[in-house]
Write a structure and sequence with these properties.
Blueprint (H helix, E strand, L loop, with lengths): L1 H4 L3 H13 L10 H11 L11 E3 L5 E3 H4 L4 E7 L4 H15 L5 E7 L6 H11 L5 E3 L4 H5 L7 E5 L5 E5 L4 H12 L31 E3 L5 E3 L8 E6 L3 H8 L1 H17 L6 E7 L5 H11 L5 E4 L3 H5 L7 E5 L5 E5 L7 H6 L2
Parallel strand pairs: 3-4, 4-5, 10-11, 11-12
Antiparallel strand pairs: 1-2, 3-6, 6-7, 8-9, 10-13, 13-14
Helix pairs in contact: 9-10
Length: 350
């Protein structure tokens, strides 16, 4: 229980519920915080035209969402192999797929966050999953649907408009699926808009200059990403729950997050470096990030990337990832998970 005590409250509660879910007849968990995050994501989505994405499944099949609008309802569920409530809800998800019929397309989208195709295929075999699975390795699908939590349910009506965003496999979801299948989609299909918001998003790689923009800091003020002629810059892409929540399901990832944090904490006193911790918005609110700073005595400036925009622009889908830029604002080094010990060497070379 001492390890659970260090977790964000809703994640600790989720883990405890998983223990109960292993018992025969245990109910699907009810995570109100997860539902709130999903509903906040839905504020800008419900009633709007769904994005016309073309998806590729892990088996190589193509799913053109735009071609489905006006013909059938679509149920997209975001999930991850390390996600406790995702596993709890999987029987409901599989049953929905098996009973979908011709008027409902059911698609599983792995969020691609600290996950892999190998892990997905093992999970698929263990749980007997048969619906189409998409691996969102670049985060573009999650960005299009304002991903904030796992699982996150997206229900799109036959008219091509988003009707429901949620987290729980409950009566609200079942009602939304029924309503989506019943709606007449012919009249509004022509009005359904085009591409998704991340389609033309800029991306930054080695050799590129940092973007000339500012981001809000957790405790107020802002941080300018590019500050040429000043000091080298280090971006630390992180998740506040990585060390705790993944300690059981992904122990190697949790250990990597811990090592990176310790390395950054050790080097953060170097006044020649501009530091910024960029926290994923998945399962995280500002209060969670403040608690993370307090619990782990993190001293570098922090920003919450709630929309996932920065993670997408820097092509980060695994934490910890560290981006190093020189004093001219040029990206010179990228350290992937497990490479944190190379940070000192990278800084020495600046």
């Amino acid at each position: 229980m001492s390890r659970l005590a260090a977790w964000p409250p809703r994640l600790a509660a989720t883990a405890l519920l998983l223990l109960g879910s292993l018992l025969p007849g245990a109910p699907i968990m009810a995570d109100t915080s997860g539902q709130q995050l999903a509903q906040s994501a839905g504020h800008g989505l419900v009633g709007s035209p769904a994005p016309k994405l073309v998806l590729t499944t892990i088996d190589g099949a193509t799913i053109d969402l735009g071609s489905l609008y006006g013909k059938k309802a679509v149920y997209v569920k975001f999930w991850a192999t390390w996600c406790v409530p995702c596993r709890q809800q999987m029987p409901h998800f599989q049953k929905t797929f098996e009973n979908a019929g011709a008027d409902l397309a059911v698609i599983a989208v792995d969020v691609g966050f600290n996950d892999s195709l190998d892990a997905i295929r093992r999970y698929q075999q263990q749980l007997g999953i048969t619906m189409p699975i998409v691996f969102d390795g670049d985060g573009r699908v999650g960005a299009a649907f304002h991903l904030r939590v796992t699982p996150q349910h997206i229900v799109i009506g036959r008219d091509g408009r988003i009707q429901y965003v949620g987290h729980l496999a409950d009566q609200r979801l079942d009602d939304a699926l029924l309503a989506a299948r019943s709606a007449d989609g012919g009249a509004q299909h022509a009005a359904v808009g085009g591409g998704h918001p991340a389609a033309d998003a800029r991306q930054f790689a080695l050799g590129d200059a940092l973007p000339a923009q500012s981001v809000p800091l957790l405790e107020g003020g802002s941080f300018r990403l590019q500050a040429t002629g000043a000091h080298p810059t280090v971006f630390v892409f992180l998740s506040p729950w990585c060390e705790s929540y993944l300690a059981t399901t992904r122990p190697e990832v949790a250990a990597s997050c811990r090592r990176a944090r310790e390395q950054v904490n050790t080097l953060a006193g170097d006044g020649r470096i501009r530091w910024l911790g960029i926290a994923s918005g998945l399962w995280v609110k500002r209060d969670d990030l403040r608690q993370y700073r307090k619990d782990y005595r993190v001293t570098i400036p922090l920003t919450l990337d709630a929309s996932g925009k920065l993670f997408g622009e820097f092509r980060v889908n695994n934490v910890p990832t560290i981006i190093v830029a020189d004093a001219h604002g040029k990206i010179v080094r990228r350290l992937e998970p497990g490479d944190a010990q190379g940070l000192q060497t990278a800084l020495d070379g600046l």
